[in-house]
Amino acid sequence: MNRLLILGAGTAGTMMAAKMRRALPRDEWNITIVDQDNDHLYQPGLLFIPFGVYDESDVVRPRARYVPKGVDLLLSGIDVIEPGENRVRLMDGSLVDYDFLVIATGSRIAPDEMEGLTGPGWQKDIFDFYTLDGATKLHRALEDFEGGRLVLNVAEMPIKCPVAPLEFLFLADWYFHKRGMRDNVELVYATPLDGAFTKPMASKKLGGLLTDKGIQVETVFNAGSVDAERKILASWDEREVPYDLLVTVPTNMGAEVIERSDLGDELGFIPTDRNTLQAEVAPNVFVIGDATDLPSSKAGSVAHFQGEILEHNLLAAIAGEELAPDFDGHANCFVETGFGKAILIDFNYDVEPLPGRFPLAKVGPMRLLEESRMNHWGKLAFRWIYWNQLLAGREIPLVQAQLSMKGKENPAVPQAA
Amino acid sequence: MSTATIAGVPVELDAEGFMTDASQWTREIAEAIARDNGIDPLTDKHWQVIDFCRADNEAKGTPPTVRRITKGTGISTKEMYQLFPKGPGILSSKIAGLPKPKGCI
Description:
The structure holds two protein chains of two kinds.
Chain A: E1 2-7, H1 11-23, E2 29-35, E3 39-41, H2 56-59, E4 60-62, H3 63-66, E5 71-75, E6 78-82, E7 87-90, E8 95-97, E9 100-103, E10 107-109, E11 126-127, H4 132-144, E12 148-154, H5 164-178, E13 185-190, H6 200-212, E14 216-218, E15 223-227, E16 232-235, E17 240-242, E18 245-249, E19 252-254, H7 256-260, E20 285-287, H8 300-318, E21 331-338, E22 341-347, E23 356-360, E24 364-368, H9 373-390
Helix pairs in contact in A: 1-8
Chain B: E1 2-6, E2 9-13, H1 27-36, H2 44-60, H3 66-73, H4 77-83, H5 88-95
Antiparallel strand pairs in B: 1-2
C-alpha cells in the first residue's frame, strides 16, 4: 500500500484530500491527513466578526465533516518533517511514512515579532483579527469604543489576504457611520507599502476609496515597536503614530513545524517551484496554499486554483511523468468596501487587477475593479461555495485555474469599438 | 529607462535610479550611489550587507528583504536603519546595483 500524506486540514489540505481520494485507487493508495485540532475555520469570515456580522458559529465547523470517506484523519500536532527519510514525526511520538507528501500547513500571525505589541496593551487596546479569539475580542472592544483614533497597522509583508486590512477600514467606516459616531472616529492606515495595494491600478482605485471615506494613510511605515503606556506605534525610522485603539496585522509566518524541520525561509515559508508547486527540498514533496514562499497572494482562491494544478502534478509525479508548469499565480478576491458593496479583483503573477466584467465578457455579472452590490452578494454567497464546493475539491463553474483575459479591459491596449 | 555615467562607467538606470543590469555594477559605482544618498564612506558593515544582497540576488533572482538581510548577516534591524537611514531595503538594493525590491503581493 502506498501512502499520500497531507499535512494540514485547512482549505488547501482538505480540498487536496477530496481531489486525490477521487483520483487514486483505494486498493493501492492510503491517504492520511493530519491537523492539530478538529476546528475548521472559515477564514474569510473573520473579517466580519469585529463588526458583529458573523460570530463563532458562522465560521467554525468540525474538520472531520469535510474530510472525505476513505481518508484517515489524524488529530495531532506535527513535531518534525524528515524529507530525507520520507517520514513525519507527530507530537505523540508516532512516525508516519509517506511515498508522497503535500504540505498545507498555512500561515499564522506572530505578534511577538514586534517589540511591545504583546505587552500590557495586548487585547486591551491592541487587537488582531486574524484569529477567532482576536476577532471576537475586537468585536467587544469596538462595541465599547467611544471614539478617538483607530489605527490599523500592517507589520510587514507578505500577509495572508493582502486586501483584508483595507476591507477592515472600509467596514469600520461603515460601522461607525451606522452607529452615528463616524465624526468622532479618526481612521488611520499605517502600511509598509508605498500605496494602498501592491499593484498600480488597484492601488489607485483602493487609495481613492480611502481618500473618499476620509481614511488617513501613512505609507512606507515600517513599524518597529509599540509603547503601550504612551499608546504610540513607532516605525524603525522613528516616526510616531498615536492610537486609542490599535488593530494590528502582525508579521505572518509559516507553521512552527516548518522552522523546526529547517524547511522554511526567513519567515518559515517553504521554497516552492512557482509553476509546478514542487518543493525544492525533494521531488516527492509538494506545497500548496499559504505555506509556500511564492509571490502569489496568500488566499483561499489561490489555494483553489493551485489545487487543480497540484492534482495533475501529483498524478504525473506518481506515474513518473513530467510536471506541468501551469500555476500562473492566479488570485480572485472580493474586496468589501462597506455600505453593502464590494470590488472584485482578478490577477496573476504577470497581469495586475484590471477593470472589466467577470467571469463573462460584457455580461459579468460581476464587475472588476469597480464597486457594486452584486460583488458584495458574491462575497456573501462565497461562504456557501466554500463549504460545499471548494472544500470538496470541485470546480467553480466558469472560473478556470489560470487567469483568463476574457472581459478584462486593458487601458494600455485600446479596445476595438 | 536612461543611461548615466557613474564612477566613469555608463550604466542603465530605471525611472527611480535603480540599475537595470547588475553586471554593470562595480564597487566604485556603489560608493558613488551611496554618496548621492548621503552615505559616505561605506564601512565594512555596509559592504557586508551589499555583498550579501548581491549574492542572495544571484541565488534567488530577487533582492532580499530587510528581514532576510538581518537573518543572513546577523546585523539587527535597528542597525540596518543606522547604516541605511530611512529605507534600508530600498537603499541597500540601489547601492548594490539591484532592482527596487518589489513589495510582496
